[in-house]
Specification:
This protein has 383 residues and is α+β, with helices and mostly antiparallel strands. The protein contains ten helices and 19 strands. The radius of gyration is 26 Å and the shape is elongated.
């Protein structure tokens, strides 16, 4: 007698692999709303859902990275399971960003269920959807996993309002939509104005794209002040929960200033900082005005001064690069924290020539923007 899907998922409760795993209760809830009959299904990614679909569908396609040589392999977890139906499953190995584009679907390849759960970084879930949506049958189910990730949640928000779908609901962090018989926007045109998400919000206010970042020369900006941080921080800089300061939270973190005053040919940027982790400061630099300046490790508050030519536009962009910073949840496994912490920033000031604060920067050299050394540092950070 065949084991029921519910029994299989109950047995697999608590089982995980290198890519994480669906909650068995969520998969049971999903199984209850899937169409009945001879199903043809497809998923990106691989895991307990693959075992489930191999028992529910006559044919199941799996587009997944081949991790069989890795510890905690999700593919091997599936293929070695006693109830996995290999005879019903077709694996297409490789990055889905590439395999979905090159795979030769036939005109008969229409699916009752499509699960999008491959790479989660933007724009890849959107790309998976764009390559698969027209292969979903009317009354078929589109499953989008991990809608708690902001960029994926935004995609789900767009689709749940689209006339092509009716929303079934969100199970934990997995969204389900049913394809309606209503025609969507044509795939050979534009028609953005026929999509509910767009016309119900059009036009967006442009204020957030035109923030006033004017700064007075010789004024020290307190980066612990929320108003200053909101005004000058562009990306990857947040208030520190532990100190009266801001903290960088990614490999590249950026502040921007608009200096309207004209004084001399040079500015000196004065930064008060200290390091969060010593290893995160390995090869750390500050990029500003075409100058690349080392950011040395400092366990206590230090001052870094960088002399730059006054930009004709008055726009000063300061980027803190920490290529060796690692996600903090790799350090503190009790917290699910993705931020790559590098430095604390207490204040910043742009000094004019003759203000009495000008000096040569500590250990600076010229660089061609993001090429050369910085490109090398970013390549290093990815490995």
């Amino acid at each position: 007698m065949e084991t029921s899907v519910k029994d299989i998922l109950t047995r697999l409760s608590g089982v995980a692999h290198r890519g994480g795993a669906f909650n068995s209760d969520v998969l049971m809830a999903i199984a209850e709303v899937l169409p009945s009959g001879d199903l043809k299904t497809l998923e990106t990614g691989c895991g307990k859902s693959t075992i489930m679909f191999s028992n529910l569908a006559l044919k199941h396609y799996v587009f997944a990275y081949d991790d069989r040589q890795s510890e905690g392999s999700s593919v091997l977890m599936v293929q070695n399971d006693k109830e996995f139906r290999q005879d019903r499953t077709i694996f297409v190995y490789g990055p889905t960003q590439q395999t979905l584009r090159s795979f030769l679907f036939t005109d008969d390849d229409m699916f009752d269920v499509i699960l999008i759960d491959g790479p989660h970084g933007y724009p890849f879930p959107d790309l998976e959807y764009a390559l698969l949506y027209d292969k979903l049958k009317v009354d078929g189910i589109l499953i989008i996993d991990d809608v708690h990730i902001p960029s994926i949640g935004k995609m789900y928000d767009v689709l749940r309002e689209d006339r092509m779908y009716e929303e079934i609901g969100v199970f934990s962090t997995t969204g389900l939509l049913r394809r309606t018989a209503i025609e969507g926007v044509p795939n050979d045109g534009d028609h953005w104005y026929e999509q509910s998400y767009n016309y119900s919000r059009f036009p967006l206010a442009m204020d957030k794209y035109h923030t006033d970042r004017t700064v007075a020369l010789n004024r020290q900006i307190n980066l612990a002040d929320p108003a200053s941080l909101e005004k000058y921080a562009i990306k990857s800089i947040e208030r520190s929960p532990k100190e009266a300061a801001a903290q960088t939270t990614d490999i590249g973190a950026t502040l921007e200033f608009n200096v309207t005053e004209s004084a001399g040919k040079h500015f000196t940027l004065e930064i008060q900082y200290k390091s969060i982790y010593e290893d995160a400061c390995r090869d750390a630099v500050v990029l500003v005005g075409g100058v690349t300046t080392p950011l040395p490790y400092s366990s206590g508050w230090s001052k870094l001064e960088i002399m730059i030519e006054r930009p004709a536009s008055g726009r000063v962009i300061v980027t803190f690069v920490h290529p060796s910073a690692i996600p903090e949840h790799d350090r503190e496994t009790k917290r699910y924290e993705f931020r790559r912490l590098g430095s604390l920033l207490r204040s910043i000031a742009i000094r004019s020539e003759g203000s009495g604060h000008d000096s040569q920067s500590q250990s600076r050299w010229k660089s061609g923007g993001m090429s050369g050394l910085i490109a090398k540092l970013f390549r290093k950070a990815r490995h």
